[in-house]
Design brief:
This protein is of the alpha/beta class. It has a domain at 1-90: Spore Coat Polysaccharide Biosynthesis Protein SpsA, Chain A (Alpha-Beta Complex). Helices cover 43% and strands 19% of the residues. It has helices spanning 23-28, 31-35, 51-55, 69-79, 98-106, 126-140, 153-158, 169-178, 195-200, 202-217, 222-232, and strands at residues 10-16, 39-44, 61-64, 84-87, 92-93, 112-120, 150-152, 184-193. An eight-stranded mixed beta sheet has the order 3-2-1-4-7-6-8-5. Strand 2, helix 3 and strand 3 (61-64) form a beta-alpha-beta unit.
């Protein structure tokens, strides 16, 4: 008599691109979640470094996808088995009890949610940026990918998955999910690298992102905004 596979309560989807330097530390930090029944799926967008080989021992599956964070996250979600799906950037670390926090949050009847964020780095403004991100998200009900979006599989499917656009896919997905329920905004923090702000200048990055968000809100096509983003960086 064959045994039916155990249900997977939670799937963590990690899109990667040239993350060899830190991918082992990032994925090994998820080992306790895997021990408690979660699965970790890495979706690589064509890394030119050693990301895939280094990731393989520390996750349940490594798969390839056309490059693009939205495409990679969608591919990972479709290939995963969890009743709940978490989308985690490759430079972001979940809290130790992330799975329990998520289960309790969604047990209230909400369809989705996100964590607060804490940014690491040397720039003095990073804690201020994090507090502003968290406050803005609570006020608007819009979350960013840095905050580790989580949702039921049903909500992911009803929202139509992430729009496969080159920028602002997290903003658009939040809008779709808000039609299902308000997000649960957890006070527990994910820890994310502030490298993006430090590499390109904190004030310069803040102004760039606000300008791009404003133009997206005004209806400018995300492909045009992605060109501006790449040029500015």
């Amino acid at each position: 008599m064959s045994l039916s596979p155990r249900p997977v309560p939670l799937s963590v989807i990690v899109p990667t691109l040239d993350e060899a330097l830190g991918i082992k530390a990032h994925l090994s930090a998820l080992a306790h979640l895997r021990e408690r029944g979660a699965e970790v799926v890495v979706v690589d967008g064509g890394s030119r470094d050693d990301t895939v080989r280094r990731a393989a021992p520390w996750c349940d599956r490594v798969m390839a996808s056309p490059a693009g964070r939205a495409r990679q996250m969608n591919a990972g979600a479709l290939a995963s088995q969890g009743a709940i799906v978490v989308f985690l950037h490759a430079d972001t670390r979940l809290p130790e009890d992330a799975d329990q926090c998520i289960y309790q949050a969604l047990a209230t009847g909400a369809a989705w949610g996100r964590f607060d964020i804490r940014l690491t780095g040397q720039a003095r403004l990073l804690p201020v940026i994090a507090r502003c991100m968290n406050a803005r998200s609570r006020l608007t009900g819009i979350a960013t990918g840095d905050q580790a979006l989580f949702m039921t599989r049903d909500a992911f499917e009803r929202a139509g998955s992430f729009p496969e656009q080159p920028l602002m896919e997290d903003i658009e997905m939040s809008r779709r999910l808000k039609a299902l329920s308000r997000p649960v905004c957890l006070h527990q923090c994910v820890i994310s690298s502030g490298r993006r702000w430090e590499r390109h200048g904190v004030w310069r990055t803040i102004l760039l992102m606000w300008r791009l968000r404003y133009r997206y809100w005004r209806g400018v096509d995300s492909a045009k905004l992605a060109k501006v983003y790449r040029h500015a960086r």
